[in-house]
Amino acid sequence: SPPGPRGLPFLGSALDLPTKFVFRKFDEWSKLYDGWFTLSAAGQKFLVITRADVAVDILDKMSVQTSDRPALPMVRYMLRRMSFPFDNYNDRWRRCRRLAHENFNIQALDNYRTLYEHATAKLLRRLPDVDPMQLREELTQFSGALAYEALYGRDAGGVNQRRNIHRVWKLLEVLGDAASPATFLINLMPSLDILPESLSPWKQFGTRYFNENDKFFMEMAQPGLTGQSDSGFVASCARMRDRTDGISDAEIAWTSFSLYGAGVETTPYTLHWFVMAMVLFPEVYQRAQGEVSTVAGNRPPTFEHRSKLPYLVAVMKETLRWRPVLPAGLPHTASEDFLYKQFRIRKGTYVFANQWSMCRDPAVYPDFELFKPERFLADPPPPDPPVFGFGRRICPGRNFAQEVLFLAMANLLWAFHFEKATEPDGKVIIPSPDSIDGNILLRPQPFPFVITPRQEIPN
Ligand code: HEM
């Protein structure tokens, strides 16, 4: 049989699998096996990949067999298969994925640059008044507003935008809870699915959730769909209708929500980790800040400066590697049986890429505990950190995310000094990068630090 922990009869490794931060347990097991292992938990089979070259073999080269997603019953009731990151590998997924790709590939990103320059400038103006313990919320607002305008259009501002962002935030939270096996019995006992809706409160809940949100997403998308707004993702998709077989307005509206949901937490948490790294590693911070100041002078840095900021680009890569915000990626599923190293992997097996372990592979990233951006300036440099997933499911927002991160990092360094905070008795407070919350996301805990403007911030 393939390598991996065997656990108990029938239960398998179910009791060893934590409900939170499963990446840590996978990482522990990674030390015992050679890049991958399998296990089963209460009948569900898992294949866990812990080295990037194995991920390439299984998720890139065999992507036809390994690009499905687990079908959690509760998620199906709530989303009715309209949200492509959760959907099976099928025609609708392909249509929606194409919308995402065409609008967020490198060339298309030029359309969004003014937008993130504005959002970043606004962030700089707000930050001096923000309590550092509220930084995470502030960064989440920043990326929420940015994503909202990128998706629904520049003129989607105002009170509605704030209210809608808040509402999307809430409904994502409900979705996250429902996707967890512990919340809804049905996720653990899919056989209950045969009960009629009148006897299944969870199906009624799902129907309500779907109907309310379907209406809400259509309302948000309306200006773009009808041509009232001509900027942003929805408007651009509406213009692509003729070229995209069978795409419906509802699919455009749900794809927009899906992109919002997938992007809105990952980006600000990465920025929060960046601020922690700057506070923890003053020599990196000074070098990066020196580079930005020399290149940008007394005007805020822009994309024009990117090619002259190699160290900062390395800092961004190192942040993504040091604290990958999706440490166990998102699970894929095998859509048919396949062979790997002569072992048969069964249809329905969950396939995890434990990116945390890959980012801490000592053969690729020596001294992986340390924050060492200069590793990415070596000749030849190591591969970019594998934090955006693999194969046909690779993150379609990866270039967008990195542009937003680059610009925000450059501007934060240009505008502010970051330092460790001190207790009233003068003791220096050292934030802990191991202090996390979240569930599948690696979310930093708020931490105290001192932020002081070092530039006149333009209005
Ligand atoms: C630091 C930022 C980000 C990180 C680290 C990240 C990482 C990931 C990862 C690991 C996956 C799973 C890939 C797989 O299944 O193999 C993923 C999927 C996805 N990401 Fe991102 N992401 C980020 C930002 C964004 C942004 C800004 C957007 C939207 C504009 C986005 C949209 C998506 C979507 C739609 C999927 C699902 C793709 C599918 O199932 O076909 N992500 N991302």
TrEMBL record:
Cofactor(s) needed: heme
Similarity section: Belongs to the cytochrome P450 family.
Superkingdom per UniProt: Eukaryota
Annotated heme binding sites: C395
Molecular function per GO: heme binding; iron ion binding; monooxygenase activity; oxidoreductase activity, acting on paired donors, with incorporation or reduction of molecular oxygen
Pfam families xrefs: p450
Swiss-Prot/TrEMBL keywords: Heme, Iron, Metal-binding, Monooxygenase, Oxidoreductase, Signal
Protein name as annotated: Cytochrome P450
Pathway info: Secondary metabolite biosynthesis
The keyword Cell inner membrane appears for this protein: no
